[in-house]
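I hope you will forgive my troubling you with a question about protein structure. The matter concerns a single protein, recorded as an amino acid sequence and a row of backbone structure tokens. Please examine both parts with care and let me know of anything in them that strikes you as inconsistent. Thank you for your consideration; the sequence and its tokens are set out here:
***
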Amino acid sequence: MSSPRRSPSFRRQKDELGSWSTLVNRHRFLLVALCLLVILCTVYLYFAITLGAVDSCSGLSGDAKALCQMEHVKDSLARRKFKLR
């Protein structure tokens, strides 16, 4: 068996497959989509952490905390009744 001859065009094709610029050009859409996904997830997590964990009763203890939580329950029930009417 004879080995296949390697022509200059084969070497050029091999170089094109291995270069970073060619790789980036071929996968530009996927890279842009990945960057956008990372940005959107970061923004979502930022707002989920900063706005989602607000608890005004966190510094209280015992009866004061229980009364504070009952006030929150009453407020949420009053808002529901108001929305239903």
Remarks:
- The helical segments are 8-18, 20-26, 28-52, 63-84.
- The chain has two domains: 10-54, 57-85.
